[in-house]
Amino acid sequence: MFDLFRKKKDTDEAVQPEAAPPEDKQQAQRAGKMRRALNRTRAFFATAFATDPEGLVDDEFYDDIVDAFVLADVGTELGTELTELIQDRMKEHGFVKKADVPRVAREILAELIDTKPPTPLDPDALSIVMLVGVNGSGKTTLAAKLAHRLKGEGRRVLLAAADTFRAAATDQLKVWAERVGVDIVAGQEGADPASVVFDAAQAAQSRNTEVLIVDTAGRLQTKKNLMDELSKVTRTVDKACPGANVAHLLVLDATVGQNALSQAELFNECCTLSGLALTKLDGTAKGGALIAVVKRLGVPVLYAGVGEQPEDIVDFDADEFAAGLLPG
Predict the structure, then answer these.
(1) Has residue 241 got a pLDDT over 70?
(2) Range of 63's domain?
(3) Of 24, 115, 132, 198, which has the maximum CB count within 10 A?
């Protein structure tokens, strides 16, 4: 469904955004942000490749690659599996030098995380993006960034502040809404999140909104009652807007490591995930856990947050992520 966000319909009469920079310049800027965001992880692999880069590969060298994957939060099991895939492809191509490994590794990682995107949905129906995730994952900031981006593309956007449990969460989103220039529907602190979402859905339909972005309460995935509350919110959306394009976008903090996998599995059980967004890629995050999440669930990564400004959100690109992860 997210493909429909990236291009305005020719028949739309909304004010068109300013001309975007050429695609090659956009790609270079995006790749540069991703590379800077993954500086820490790339350093792990750079260390493994640093000794005699023109030398021949051997078992000790591949052990170092496994260690680098583990340090990058990929996990021991998957790190070992990926290293074996690298070894096999090196043999297939007849490569024997360490200098060839980064290119081969980038190819394998890009293939693994380049999952099929969601099927585009009816652009004439309301699209509702439910941002889900644990406390502190960056949902509120991502909601604002996504709203800013869609508004810039000429979309009619509405925000819903359904995180009524966290102190000042609604105020935070209100500040962001004013900053990026979009409307917001909010309730009182402690209000029933489902009621806020219901009101926002009704408002979105009456205002001819194209995209409703819902900032849900942070959920501790081990707390059954909180996950049940998220299921209730999802049912409310279905009731308030039958026929709407509804997507559940899991927001993952790039700094949480292997815990991201358990988060993704449990949220996917609660509400089938449409995609992932990776946040807090600020040069200190490892980001490798994303590889394990995608391999386990097959859910596409759609966005990456690479800074604190409203414009610091990029379409996730598997090739750019792999290139940023590995030196060379």
Answers:
(1) yes
(2) 36-113
(3) 132
